[in-house]
Write a structure and sequence with these properties.
By secondary structure, this protein is of the alpha/beta class. About 40% of the residues lie in helices and about 15% in strands. The structure holds pyridoxal-5'-phosphate.
Length: about 375
């Protein structure tokens, strides 16, 4: 007989998922109710308001997509692009490459602006691309590149897009709740995130928000969005402002209890306090790593506090060290991804896992594993 599954109690300090708090885990065990139950519809309204707070937006079309961050990404591209369109896509890590895939699968052309992995997106190159491609209708970039631990200057990139009248698609999967993110003040148009990073919710939900400009573009589409599930005009019927909600798909009811609880916790702590906590723990971790003789892979100004890329010292066996942390300390840290595989470790201090206790645990465990 196959037995029930009881996972060990790990400490998740990789690139996500991050540790889910007991309070959020407990919310999952509450009774399932119907996804059109009036009480559930009220919960949906609260989730929307809480997401508007997290994204710092008053966008009416703000909701959690019932699927992981990649679905949020795809929702932004398939709704804003049509066959024959052009999008400028910035790539400085893995996820810019995934954006390119999305553009091309829409039958659109991706004009790539490339930067080194571990460096931020260069606004000068973006300004050049916008000037040279007046046919472009979208600028897409990743705010917090999880593959490298690098932040890009989202505010400046959005400003450039505004000056050229193009819409911005911004990936905030790793930034939401961990670093400053101001959707309305910066003027981003289609923004997606994930539940499993700095929100510390269970994986599998993708918060998204669309500006009135983006909604206008969606409503003016000449052709149907090729994805039925991610067609925002259909999803709006379920999540829209109208109190008469139409069935679109069966929402992941208990996962949305968890998202609600996560966002209530964020509201209780306050966004600014959560951001300061991420910064404080990051500083402590970096000080400890440097005291051990390790060096950071990203220049200080562009480091993500929630995802710390550390250079693996010469002669150290990457997989052996990570294996030891998992076996002896129940501690997960991330391997380098793509071009940085075998060269860096990625140490996450995301959401509920961004705690002093975890900083100390990680430093002690790494010191032991490196002996
Ligand atoms: N974008 C970024 C920056 C990510 O870090 C991730 C996941 O790590 C994704 C998109 C995709 O999210 P998911 O794995 O939830 O589909």
């Amino acid at each position: 007989m196959t037995q029930s599954f009881f996972p060990p109690q790990r400490t998740l300090m990789g690139p996500g998922p991050s540790d889910v708090s007991p309070r959020v885990l407990a919310s999952l065990a509450r009774p399932t109710i119907g996804h059109l139950d009036p009480l559930f519809v009220s919960l949906m309204d609260e989730i929307k308001g809480l997401l508007q707070y997290a994204f710092q937006t008053s966008n009416e079309l703000t909701l959690p997509i019932s699927a992981p961050g990649s679905a949020g990404m795809e929702a932004c591209f398939v709704n804003l692009l049509s066959c024959g369109d052009t999008a400028i896509v910035c790539q400085n890590g893995v996820f810019g490459g995934r954006m390119r895939e999305n553009v091309e699968r829409c039958g659109a052309t991706a004009v790539m602006v490339e930067d080194d992995w571990g460096a931020p997106v260069d606004p000068h190159k973006v300004a050049e691309a916008l000037k040279n491609h007046p046919e472009a209708s979208v600028l897409a970039f990743v705010h917090a590149e999880t593959s490298t631990g690098t932040r890009s200057d989202a505010e400046t990139l959005c400003k450039l897009a505004r000056e050229h009248g193009v819409l911005v698609i911004m990936d905030t999967v790793t930034s939401l709740g961990g670093i400053e993110l101001k959707v309305d003040a910066w003027g981003a148009d289609a923004v997606y995130s994930g539940s499993q990073k700095c929100l510390s919710c269970v994986p599998g939900i993708s918060p998204v928000t669309f500006s009135p400009r983006a909604v206008e573009r969606i409503q003016a589409r000449a052709h149907k969005v090729q994805s039925w599930f991610l067609d925002m005009q259909l999803v709006m019927g379920y999540w829209g402002g109208d109190s008469k909600r139409a069935y679109h798909h069966t929402a992941p009811v208990n996962a949305l209890y968890a998202l609600h609880e996560t966002l209530v916790i964020l509201q209780e702590e306050g966004l600014d306090n959560a951001i300061s906590r991420h910064q404080r723990n990051h500083k402590a971790l970096v000080a400890g790593l440097e005291a051990m003789g390790l060096s950071m892979a990203v220049e200080e100004a562009w480091r993500l506090p929630q995802l710390n890329s550390v250079c693996i010292p010469d002669g150290v066996d990457d997989a052996r060290v990570r294996g030891r942390l998992l076996r002896d300390f129940d501690l997960e840290i991330g391997a380098g991804l793509g071009a940085l595989a075998g060269k860096t470790w990625r140490i996450g201090l995301m959401g509920h896992a961004s705690r002093q206790r975890n900083v100390i645990l990680c430093l002690n465990a790494l010191e032991t594993a490196l002996k």
